[in-house]
Queue: 3 jobs
Job 1
Amino acid sequence: MTGWLARRWTEWQRATNWALVFICLASVSGQAVAARVAVVLSEDSTHYQEAYQVIRAHLEAAGHKASRTYAEGVTSAALNDAPLAVAVGVRAAESLAVLPNRPPVLALLVPRAWYVKNGRTRLTEGGRYSASAIYIDQPFERQAALIRLAFPEARRVGVLLSAEQEGLLGELDEALRSQQLSLVHARLVDGEHLIKPLESVLSEADLLLALPDPLAFNSNTAQSLFLTSYRYRDPVLGYSRSMTRAGALLSLHSSPAQIGRQAAEWVNYALVTVPVHLPAPSYPAYFSISINEQVARSLGFTLPSEAELEKRLGGVR
């Protein structure tokens, strides 16, 4: 009888232990299903809203919820105790950085130079908080590979850099050299006219690589930049579809929808980890190429199709 009782006691313990495991798993699953992610937008603009809508759709398909708020006036209470916050744009990230007891923050559509220099430190406060980012920039290796594919005769790549971006020169030079390309660059000073440094670069380079630097490329400088590059017969490789429409021969870019898709994948992964764990900061995984056929004809370039370049570039990432 004693042996029978011992066996029954052991079986009961095992059953109890498995029941506890299933209860814990159900609890974790329930928490994941009920998770509400706070998405903070820098402003009410089309591209920020596009990223939010894609994030919301993907999260809802996975059983989560997304709440939308804006950087201006955001408070801890507005986050509704969310286990994770997504900041869309620099302004949104900076608004979250000043909040006490904030959840982990994933910053989207932010320049890598900003995140490395200021954003990461402000969002993590020396490791007290968790943060990560999906940059708006394309990786230099991908840009260099596209240059080699689209312009096989090119040898020298021109770049304009502000002090904010100058720390990336070494990485850019290494990526270009891997494709047998050399770097020609000029530093921009705030308040300085663009034309002089631009012409010094264009006079030596075979093409101009545009980086997302507001001091070099903005609504006030775009027309002068494209007209000057056209005069030197140098094509421009841009970083957005709007730059292609404005006069860049082609652009390598990730849309807000593509970055929003990647963000949703990261968030879904993070919400099943305890505590919430974000991947390391990264460049966009998804990208597109756009070509201005009129500019190509005017400058005498014959390029592979957008689809062909995207396919071939996907193979060298």
Note: Residues 1-32 have pLDDT under 50 and may be disordered.
Job 2
Amino acid sequence: MENNPDSQNFKAYLPAFFILLLAGAIGLAAMLLFTLPTIGPRWLFFFFLTILVSAFFLPVTYFLNLRFPSHPPVQPAVIIRQAIWFGVLVSALAWLQIARVLTLPLALILTGGLLLVELMLRLWEKSRWKPGDAGE
């Protein structure tokens, strides 16, 4: 891998990573240990699960975008958005599993749908990119 001076370092994402990780882990642990399974804590479960999974996938999405670069290069908001997609997917799968309706084909359809949405967003961003933009 070559050193590209335009590519950002993961150090820029470390504050967001640690804030999301701590908020998700502490919130999920507190919610599981100190609440009853009523409607409010159930939504808190999905909220904290989304935050925690997004934190875990932030380095993964950073590495994937570093390993498979695109032209124009991705903005930091795109890497964070892609990590949030993973959190949303895991929360949706957990919701379906709690309701006992999750199947492998349904999980694959949801995953494919979110991948398609991200692909369409990236295509839209590429179509609006101009060589003189600030991201280059």
Note: Confidence is low (pLDDT under 50) at residues 1-6.
Job 3
Amino acid sequence: MNNLEIGMALMIIGVGFVLAFLWLMIIFMGWMSKAVAYLNKIFPEPVEEVKKAVKKTSDNVEAAIALAIAAIRAKRHQ
């Protein structure tokens, strides 16, 4: 056998191992997803209600923002 034939044989063996591994991984991932779905039916996780945060705005903050915007506009139009 020459080097080209040995290289091709190694390439085919390597690609075969990679494809076999990926094929097995896809099969096991399918089995695991089914197992987890089954376990989630048996042991569901408690769902916590998310409380909406109350937005606290004060007149001072809004006034400061309005003042900053007015100052920027005044400076731009000079």
Note: The chain is about 75% helix and 0% strand.
